[in-house]
Design brief:
The chain is of the alpha+beta class and 532 residues long. The chain has 4 domains: 103 residues, Beta Barrel (Thrombin, subunit H), CATH 2.40.10.10; 115 residues, Thrombin, subunit H (Beta Barrel), CATH 2.40.10.10; 104 residues, Roll (Pdz3 Domain), CATH 2.30.42.10; 105 residues, Pdz3 Domain. Helix content is 23%, strand content 30%. Strands 1-2-3-6-5-4 form a 6-stranded antiparallel β-barrel. Strand 26 and strand 27 form a beta hairpin. The termini are far apart. The relative contact order is 0.08.
Amino acid sequence: MSTRSLNWLKLTAVVAPTFVLALFFAGLLNFPRQSLAQERTARTPIVKVDAPRIPAARPLVDLSDAYAAVAEVVRPSVVYIQSDRPVDPREQSQIFGQLPPGFQIVPRGGRRGQSDQPQLEHGSGSGFIVSNDGYILTNNHVIEGASKVTVRLLNGREYNARIVGLDKDTDVGVLKIDATGLTPSALGSSEATRVGEWVLAIGNPLGEDLTFTVTQGIVSAKGRAKLELGDNDAGLVIRDYIQTDAVINRGNSGGPLVNARGEVIGINAAIASQTGYFTGYAFAVPIDLARKVMDQIVARGKVERAGMQIRVGDASREDADYLGLPSVSGVTIGDFTNGENSAAKRAGMQIGDVIVAIDDQPIKYTSQLQQTVGFRRPGETVKVEVYRKDGKHTFNVKLVNIDGATQLAESGTPAPAPKSDNAAGVSRTMLGIVTEPLTAATASEVGLPATMHGLLVRSVIDGTPAARTFCGADSDCGPPDVIVSVEGKPVKNEEELKAALSGAVRGVVTMEIASGTKDRKGTIRTQRVRLR
């Protein structure tokens, strides 16, 4: 046997007994017979835990299921709208510096400053299908001025859309696509909608990455008209928004506001925000109004409106007190837009009348009157109920075709002028203003005819009712006011003013107030003013 083989035998003789002894002692110490990996594999898998039974939560589950069901039904009728608008580069450069973060518009066909040729501005918004043959409702401001409009459905199909018609006065637009197999929305009634109802807003906020988003809220209020909602709202003649707290942002414009029955009750249109993003207050065009506009656009390609040729504003507390109205509601006639030929004036109505009903339908505010009358046919006759100083009167007014803006618009309210003067007189004591006789030179200086007579409002005293009514010459609120008449009596001095104020009814008087214009023709409004 070789030396090498002998050495292996010796090593085996030593190692073998050692290994046997090691196994013996391991058994005594109860070491694990399996590795950790083997033990894990052998354990019983984690058992799935069933959902807890919470009977009290059943209504919430049902409500959640209802929301999901409504969204599932309505979303296929919602569309994503993309539009291209030609924009002058000079105009575009001004816009870029005004947009909030995230809303900058990327011009197509090159960077800004490279060309003086018109470029395409790319925008997006929402809409919803209203017919099987492809009519779509959206906002005017989503598609106005667009040279190309593309519509994408929930299933990803895209179509070129044709603009059927637009109505800037109500911010309603109508598109048409050539498609089949569409899912039109059910249109509900905004008139029947109640404050507090649950609603869903569906649309495409903030661009392409968040398309067909669903948010939830309630109807917070109805009849919102006196709002400052930015450029999209500027110039609207008929404003009668539904307010909601459902989250709406840019891109939601044109999308549906849907009730719990899956019916569209409004077109999401605007938000009240200082940042450009949702802060809790969103607004929708009522579907009843939008449907009237849409029907005319589809039938005639334009909107034709009727009117009584009056300039109006919401009735004030002073109007209610002066006329003895049961509540502060109705619409006050401030002027006739066609002078002696005004349809309302020919029927016997007067400046200062408060309209409370049309064809026995109560009228509470200006936008309601505009909708009730504006979408009748010219030539129709309406029964108008008004209050005036001696009680209720009824007139039959034949409606005429009107152009819109100036003849439908609500009369403006002058800005307050919170300044005072150390002068005395009846105007200061009873009205809270300081006046002086209007001279020919002063009249021309403030933008009125030199032949006009009256009392110039020099200043207004803080904390008086007049601060909400008058603009004084010593203020920076605009052209100063001139009191022309009180209770139908011309006033040119303090004595005449004092005599006229004695005709106050329940502490309120009716005044004709003039304000200057650049052409020096001036404007006159009729307003009720509360005495101190």
